[in-house]
Amino acid sequence: MPRYSDLLSLGWDVDYRLSYFVEDPKESRGVLGYNEALIVGSLPLQFFSQVNWKDCSLDVFIQSGIKADAISDYSQNEGYGSQEPCIFYGQEYEFEMTPWVKDENIKVNIISADFMSLWAFFEGPAFSTASSCFITSDAAYCLFPEYTYGTQKLKWAQDLESAQESLLPIFRKHVARGWCLNEQSVEQGSDINQEFEDTVKDLGGPRRIGDEKTWVVPLDCTGIPRAEMNRTVVERNTFQVQVKMTEDGSGVFVRFETLEFQCCILEHRYTFDAAPEGQDDFHEYLRYVLCRRAAVQIQKHIDEGTFTLKKVNYRQALAKMATATETKMEGKGCNERCHLLDSRSTKGGFIVPEGWEYHDNLIPEIWAEWLKAYSRDHGIITNIQEENDEDEA
Fold first, then answer.
1. 239 has which bridge partners?
2. Which residue, 98, 138, 134, 140, is CA-closest to 119?
3. Bridge partner list, 354
4. Virtual CA dihedral for 14, 230, 23, 62, nearest 10 degrees?
5. How many angstroms separate the CA atoms of 127 and 132, rounded?
6. Tens-place pLDDT, residues 66-78
7. 314-371 pLDDT per residue, tens
8. Which of 75, 156, 225, 237 could form a disulfide with 163 if both were Cys (CB 3.0 to 4.6 A apart)?
9. What are phi and psi of 127, to 5 degrees?
10. What are phi and psi of 387, to 5 degrees?
11. Are strands 58-63 and 106-113 parallel, antiparallel or unpaired?
12. Is 104 exposed, middle or buried (0-12, 13-18, 19+ CB in 10 A)?
């Protein structure tokens, strides 16, 4: 167990932890923020558990391409040398992990995927409720604090057999070094149906990053440039926890259902909760709302003669957006894509007209509106607080 004096001195100082890996922690957070990277793995787990393991690695999760290359260059400048990359698999997709090592035992793992980092986080690093925590340039997030630290329970978010074999030993090692876990929560009980019901009650349903169930620790950002993926942007993203039972009925696990989301009237990319076909989800509802709002704005610029596309290039998209309905998508793609961004004429990028208005700041309001209806329809009692998004994205 770590000494109490060690825990007390660390507090919530993430830069102290990062100083083991980099010369200037604040500069490194600035680089991570600029490239929309997340710190995942054991370091966020230690941060929220208030323990400190010197032999851990720094795991950086990022989208493949120029952003991953920038983090690699930064690691090289910090004196790290790359090793042979390896491939591992999440729920559906593959990820590449490249270890960078200096002084033989200080390691940074750069984990990359072909998708935006926040969406891919739910597909890979969030392999359990306990590991569903991450650090950005300006805040640290733990998505299931009550379940992880209040009851000291854990649910896997992937195949149970492989998780028990390959991942449980890792958590047992964490326990030996000061982390707390009720191992009975990992073992499948005798009454699987009751366990399923309890898990649905404890974990199931739609969630928003930064909601009242999340632990959020703001970080000192003095001297750090404000990143595009800042707290305001991160805390607009949502996900849905689906509780599932194995095919043979022998175990219970969870899935984090979410889809990447872009729209011509959103400045940023997001990930919003998705549900199996026939069930309500915010992803579909938001697409409908934004379709109608985008159609109004497109028509306004057409009327003013300021729209940047010719009629032949926008008319089909405009027609679909203007007639979108909440309950009748009929395979028109309202749920999957923004019609304007998906059109052939914008493949090289949408040239935004002068005076174009983004509606990112309305997402919390639309979410609260949808969640009230969802909770009412599903008999859920919630305490929905009004969102005050005063910060600019």
1. 207
2. 134
3. none
4. 100
5. 7
6. 999 999 999 999 9
7. 888 888 888 877 665 444 444 567 888 877 666 667 888 999 999 999 999 999 999 9
8. 156
9. -85, 0
10. -90, 130
11. parallel
12. exposed
